[in-house]
Amino acid sequence: MNEKDLTLIEHIDEIRKRLMITVVFFVIAVLGSFFLAKPLIHFLQYSEEAKSLTLNAFTITDPIMIYLKVIMFIAMVITSPVILYQLWSFVSPGLHETERKATLSYIPFTFFLFVGGILFSYKVLFPYVINFMILLSTDLDINQVIGINEYFTFLFQITVPFGIIFQLPIVLLFLTRLGMVTPMMMVKVRKYAYFVLFVIAAFITPPDIFSHLLVTLPLFILYEISVMVSRIGYKKYLKSEQRRQREEQQALIDDMKK
Question: Does the pLDDT value for residue 29 go beyond 90?
């Protein structure tokens, strides 16, 4: 049976198989993350960004909660290429051969962009946010007693969204290769996209104009990079469509000769 002609039951079975593979890899990643979590926690505790802070545990369960959060975070990062590959494997039967090869090559870039977004947020945005909060507390004569659990939760809230946002070029390139998005469309909706990115930046930054611009400008640049990448993908999509049409015409001619 052709994979393109799968029934609903077969699609559900295929999803179940992909989920099982992902779960197995995630469990293995969790086990491995037990050995990586402690060094990472120590690194984040004594890094340049946290060295001026005194981190406290306010409940008995705070240490284990931090440990589990870091383990889950590491496991998700390690498993993300597997998740993306399983997603690609599920949709790839509906793609043309050239589209399958092209989209498969996106997976490593997706992983590196995710890590790059986290590092950008941790090295650029996170220190500024911490310093802003400390200065604000001093200005308001507030003695900050920072819980270590709240510190790590805030750290993940700041960094992980950037890892996701940095996927924008790859997502739009993928949609372009499928013919669902065009660079012309992206240029046409640019002002609306800028507005959405502006709002996103407002949600993940402190309420001051400098930090807002610190996040908004990179997001705008990321969108423009996405437009440029989309143009490249669109040219390849057009060539792929022309090749497909020639193959279909040739197949039709061969059928008529028979």
Answer: yes
The DSSP code for 204 is: S
110-124 burial: b if 16+ Cβ within 10 Å, else e: bbebbeebbebbbee
- Say which amino acid occupies 14: E
What is the spatial distance between Cα 243 and Cα 74, in angstroms, rounded to a whole number? 42
Extract the tokens encoding 11.
């699609």
pLDDT in tens, 45-85: 888 777 777 788 888 888 899 999 999 999 988 998 888 88
* Cα 220 from Cα 190, distance rounded (Å): 10
Question: 98, 243 in Cβ contact below 8 A?
Answer: yes
Average pLDDT over residues 203-231: 80
The answer to whether the beta carbons of residues 114 and 197 sit under 8 Å apart is: no
Distance CA 70, CA 156 (A): 9
pLDDT tens by residue, 133-177: 888 888 888 887 888 888 888 888 888 888 888 888 888 887 887
Q: What does DSSP say about strands 55-56 and 146-147: parallel, antiparallel, or unpaired?
A: parallel
DSSP string, 130-187: HHHHHHHHHHTT----EEHHHHHHHHHHHHHHHHHHTTHHHHHHHHHHTTS--HHHHH
User: Whole-angstrom Cα distance, residue 132 to residue 128?
Assistant: 6
Burial class of 245 by CB neighbour count within 10 A (0 to 12, 13 to 18, 19+): exposed
> Cβ of 109: how many Cβ atoms within 10 Å?
15
